[in-house]
């Protein structure tokens, strides 16, 4: 007998009919003899609707009250799902986050889970019941309702799986797994059978928006096997787990990720001295602007230049700051470009293979694509290129590394 945590997202519980369909799936797993805990999101659109109501009253509502409000969406779906299960002859019980005692810190709107008391859930499971828990929410030490940030139901599911020592955490969603790259860009992108936590983090942070990134971090930390699967069709989905050593035929590259949300800034002609990078980048991060790729160059005349990327939404603010720093440092110029994209190849197999970067650069060169920046990590190589070459680059790399079906 296994203990499985299943999570159903907003589209999977978006209508009463869909909730009934979820109940069928849960009933089937329960009928097969497994212990089932279900975490659910609010009906699709509901959280946004609630936020909209609040905004009609106040531009920036009190965060505690905001959490009381937005957590109600999930309270609706847990009750409806339990009713649908009861209707199918299955005993089920719903719990809000606070009722389970999902203890969080008190950072309203972006709370972090500190502890989960699995006692009551275990008792229900032992009595043969299905347990349905509201995703996205918990309560702080004082009993205030908190929420975990948008998409937080994924994290609830993983945290429950970790606390209950579940055999698997299954995330049911509107896609049937994680793909080698976005199928809208490469038609013959392939569903991956499995991928490691690390690879998934690299893929996700690049904008494959299947899972809340924090849930993957959590799953990796507690080694909870995560499976992404479709609510609407049967299939094995994609298993996200630790790397296994005996996978001899491990692919070198597992996927191609890309990101069109960034912009590039360059400051040229700054002194090549200790503290300069700090002056430039410290001021940007002090303004709470996240910096991604960073490259520094020193010219023969000992003047330096620093190039970095930020989210496009932050470009205007970052440029203003950089221009001020440039005049303080007597820099020659500041240059910005928001027609760039970031393309990465990701794979744990890279650790043990040479020549991966060369293959990447060769395939981009063959397409006449100029590489503006390059950065690497142990399992990822990223290039920044001109935006108009995005599709071409992703397709070329996808085939260069043999990722097609
Ligand atoms: N209902 C919340 C949201 O829309 C949490 C979730 O769906 O995971 O962000
Ligand atoms: Mg989601």
Describe how the helices and strands are arranged.
Layout: E1 3-8, H1 16-31, E2 35-40, H2 46-57, H3 63-70, H4 72-87, E3 92-95, H5 97-100, E4 102-104, E5 113-116, H6 119-126, E6 130-134, E7 137-139, E8 145-147, H7 153-163, E9 168-173, E10 194-196, H8 197-205, H9 213-222, E11 226-230, E12 238-241, E13 255-259, E14 262-271, H10 276-286, E15 291-298, E16 303-311, H11 315-329, E17 333-337, E18 340-346, H12 356-366, E19 371-377, E20 380-386, H13 390-400
Parallel strand pairs: 1-2, 1-9, 2-6, 3-6, 9-11, 10-12
Antiparallel strand pairs: 4-5, 7-8, 11-12, 13-18, 14-16, 14-17, 15-16, 18-20, 19-20
Aspartic acid is lined by residues 9-10, 41-42, 47, 73, 135-136, 150-153.
What is the overall pLDDT average?
A: 94
**CATH level 3 topology of the largest domain:** Carbamate kinase
Rg is 24 Å
CATH-assigned homologous superfamily of the largest domain: Acetylglutamate kinase-like
- The CATH architecture of the largest domain can be given as 3-Layer(aba) Sandwich
Largest sheet: 8 strands, mixed
Number of strands: 20
Q: Report the CATH C-level class of the largest domain.
A: Alpha Beta
Could you characterize the architecture of this molecule?
The protein has 405 residues and is an alpha/beta fold. It has two domains: 3-174, Carbamate kinase, CATH 3.40.1160.10; 256-400, VC0802-like (2-Layer Sandwich). It is built from 13 helices and 20 strands. The protein has helices at 16-31, 46-57, 63-70, 72-87, 97-100, 119-126, 153-163, 197-205, 213-222, 276-286, 315-329, 356-366, 390-400, and strands spanning 3-8, 35-40, 92-95, 102-104, 113-116, 130-134, 137-139, 145-147, 168-173, 194-196, 226-230, 238-241, 255-259, 262-271, 291-298, 303-311, 333-337, 340-346, 371-377, 380-386. The strands form five sheets. An eight-stranded mixed beta sheet has the order 3-6-2-1-9-11-12-10, with helices on both faces. It has a four-stranded antiparallel beta sheet with strand order 13-18-20-19, sandwiched between helices. Strands 15-16-14-17 form a four-stranded antiparallel beta sheet, covered by helices on one side. Strand 15 (291-298) and strand 16 form a beta hairpin. Helix 7 packs parallel to helix 9 (213-222), helix 10 runs antiparallel to helix 11 and helix 12 (356-366) packs across helix 13. The radius of gyration is 24 Å and the shape is globular. The chain starts with a strand and ends in a 5-residue tail after the last helix. The model has no long low-confidence stretch (mean pLDDT 94). The chain binds aspartic acid and magnesium ion. The site of aspartic acid has 12 residues, from loops.
